[in-house]
Design goal:
The structure holds two protein chains of two kinds. Chain A is of the alpha/beta class. In chain A, the strands form nine sheets. Chain A has a five-stranded parallel sheet with strand order 14-2-1-18-27, covered by helices on one side. In chain A, strands 10-9-22-23 form a four-stranded mixed sheet. In chain A, helix 3 links the parallel strand 1 and strand 2 (75-79). The model of chain B is unreliable at 1-21 and 95-109 (pLDDT under 50). The interface between A and B is medium-sized, with 29 and 26 residues.
Chain lengths: 521, 109
């Protein structure tokens, strides 16, 4: 029997359900695969002469390296420029210092287990296999993180007189419009030349299902958009579908409507209970090696025999020597540290741009969003602040910490970065009030963390141009003699902890093979 | 004023030390500067931070004062806008700058 692949899948799907069809389609190579996880490094246990490794930067990548290396018998020292361990894994609570260059802030949130915000990585995807593995091993409790929320708002000041609409209503209308268009084309026979009657019928039914169309293929509204009235003890009435011209002039589809389709942003996502820095604390609990804080590195010099690192501790120069060095210091700051890297390696480091991600967090005296039927998730607004995140933790608590800004557009990021902390909070309150009435009245205190200006970092996840990726990624992924670059910066998944953990595994695997080869020679 | 001059002199001393083989740490008062301007204040193009070690003392002094008054670092001066808040933080570490700014403010009022 000469089955086409689609016919074959129809048969399998009909007999065994779509799950089976999906699994078989994976075997046939038809379904898209997700990002391949880097395997966890399996280091050969060392015996005999010690191998010393200096790790520069106590962020997630450095902590993973320290944890793995010391368990395999390496002698490890971690050097961290700032007073805080964790890098961009930074959970901000009342009393915490935000070490922004020129704008030092102290967080004034109340002391309460749910009143915090994750200034760096906030969400963990189910496909972040390595990080989730460490969370399990280090006994870091996790909970769900609400990301996409159809009850949250899609807001465009230029749309519907600036009145926010539910993301679900927008999505239902957008899908209804699109699928009706296709369904009517099928009914008019415009697909005849391309599909058999049977195929056209299947596509028609798919459109009906996807867009919640009437049997005749028209979209007249859907419960997916929420009811205009009724639905419990009164008969429900549908909302009028949004006008298509207004629908497509709205920013929402252009930017973030499809965000949660991504493999790294789809439900379920997770966070550490009590703050993501509990992952950092999990590593600290399980690392015996010394982690020296308040120690900005001054030089990294290597020769055939080893690496010497000089750092500033309380105004005094200290020097430490080792066999190898692993560095998560941001690539854009490394050229400012005395070094003897190859000129090509330095050119590669200099090719990376500084990420501009920044967040503003506001302690709200009431959880007003829950009165609007929003429990966690993200509102998107076509304003400078771009996003408003509602906390996943502490449902029905009295207070909550809302993320009042998290822009992705370059110009919005720079606009906020250049402001003073107070100006940022004022703007976040003003723009939030366009979405939630009296938003500013609920704000008790606020902080901002612009990674572009945070001391010892001066940037968020590295920005790779296509040209830099092509020219320098594989070069920087290899060591410069005894020096390994680590951190999310040397991954394809920057600004995510999984990128940092994966880059660590890559360096660890390379070092393990190198040391093993030297030992067996 | 005296502090600013001292700061600038220290910059000049570092010029010589940069030529030496061994690294010489910048004095503690430069702790705010070295992250961007490099540990020997020789600049770092990756973060658009110029070489301070070759600048004359009078020039460094004038620029820091200009930043604290936003003669530099106003809207449209992109790199200056990054530097201006750094100069503001020197209020604590470098009272000379603050003194001058305060004197200027009181003249205006």
């Amino acid at each position: 029997m000469d089955y086409s692949r689609r016919q074959f899948l129809n048969k399998v799907g009909a007999v065994a359900g779509s799950g089976t069809a999906y699994q078989i389609s994976m075997l046939l190579g038809l379904a898209p695969s997700q990002a391949e996880a880097t395997p966890r490094a399996k280091l050969t246990a060392l015996s005999g002469d010690p191998v010393r490794v200096i790790i520069l930067g106590a962020g997630i990548s450095g902590l993973v390296c320290a944890y793995e290396l010391e368990r395999a018998g390496y002698e490890v020292t971690v050097i961290e420029a700032s007073p805080r361990i964790g890098g961009r894994n930074f959970t901000v609570r009342g009393g915490d210092v935000i070490d922004e260059m020129g704008h030092r802030q102290v967080c004034e949130f109340d002391t309460h287990p749910n009143l915090y915000f994750n200034a760096g990585p906030a969400r963990i995807a189910a496909q972040h296999r390595l990080l989730l593995g460490y969370c399990q091993e280090l006994e870091v409790a996790l909970e769900y993180f609400m990301d996409g929320n159809r009850q949250a708002w899609a807001h465009d000041p230029n749309f519907a007189d600036g009145k926010p609409i539910r993301a679900g209503e927008y999505v239902a209308s957008a899908r209804g419009f699109m699928t009706e268009l296709v369904a009517k084309s099928i009914k008019r026979g415009e697909f005849d030349k391309r599909f058999s009657d049977e195929d056209a019928e299947l596509i028609f039914e798919y459109m009906r299902s996807y867009g919640d169309l009437k049997p005749n293929g028209s979209y007249d509204g859907s419960s997916r958009a929420g009811y205009a009235s009724g639905g419990m003890t009164e008969a429900p009435t549908y909302k009028t579908p949004l006008d298509f011209q207004a629908l497509f002039s709205n920013f929402f589809w252009k930017s973030r409507m499809s965000d949660t389709e991504g493999w790294d942003l789809c439900a379920p996502m997770m966070q550490a209970v009590g703050g993501n820095d509990n992952i950092v604390k999990g590593f600290i609990r399980n690392i015996k090696s010394e982690i020296i804080t308040n120690a900005p590195v001054q030089s990294i010099m290597q020769d055939t025999g080893g690496v010497a690192v000089a750092y500033n501790r309380d105004g005094t120069m200290q020097t430490i020597e080792a066999d190898y060095c692993m560095t998560s210091i941001p690539a854009h700051l490394l050229p400012g540290i005395k070094n003897n890297f190859s000129s090509e390696y330095l050119a590669g480091l200099s090719s990376l741009g500084r990420g501009k991600l920044m967040k503003i967090a506001l302690q709200m005296k009431e959880r007003f969003w829950e009165r609007e039927a929003i429990y966690g998730g993200i509102t998107w607004t076509n304003q400078t602040v771009e996003q408003i995140w509602y906390p996943s933790q502490g449902i029905n608590d009295k207070k909550g910490v809302v993320l009042g800004a998290y822009p992705f557009e370059d110009e919005n990021q720079m606009a906020l970065i250049r402001m003073t902390p107070q100006q940022r909070i004022d703007l976040a309150m003003e723009q939030g009030s366009k979405v939630h009435p009296r938003y500013g009245d609920y704000v008790e205190s606020g902080v901002s963390v612009p990674w572009y200006r945070m001391n010892f970092m001066m940037g968020c996840g590295a920005e790779w141009s296509e040209q830099a990726r092509h020219q320098y990624f594989s070069l920087l992924q290899k060591p410069d003699r005894r020096h390994y670059l680590i951190g999310d910066q040397i991954s394809y998944h920057t600004s995510w902890q999984e990128g940092a953990v994966s880059a660590a595994q890559h360096a660890l695997n390379h070092l393990n093979q190198r040391v093993s080869a030297a030992r067996s020679a | 004023m005296k502090t600013v001059t001292g700061l600038a002199l220290a910059v000049l001393i570092l010029v010589n030390s940069a030529l030496a083989d061994d690294i010489v740490m910048a004095p503690q008062k430069f702790s705010h500067c070295v992250t961007c301007h490099s540990v020997e204040l020789a600049g770092n193009q990756s973060v658009d931070a110029p070489n301070l070690s070759v600048l004359e003392s009078w020039y460094v002094e004038k620029q820091l004062i200009a930043y604290t008054r936003l003669w530099r670092g106003h809207a449209g001066d992109e790199h200056g806008m990054e530097m201006a808040p750094m100069a503001a933080v020197l209020d604590d570490a470098h009272p000379g700058i603050a003194d001058r700014r305060d004197a200027q403010s009181s003249t205006r009022s």
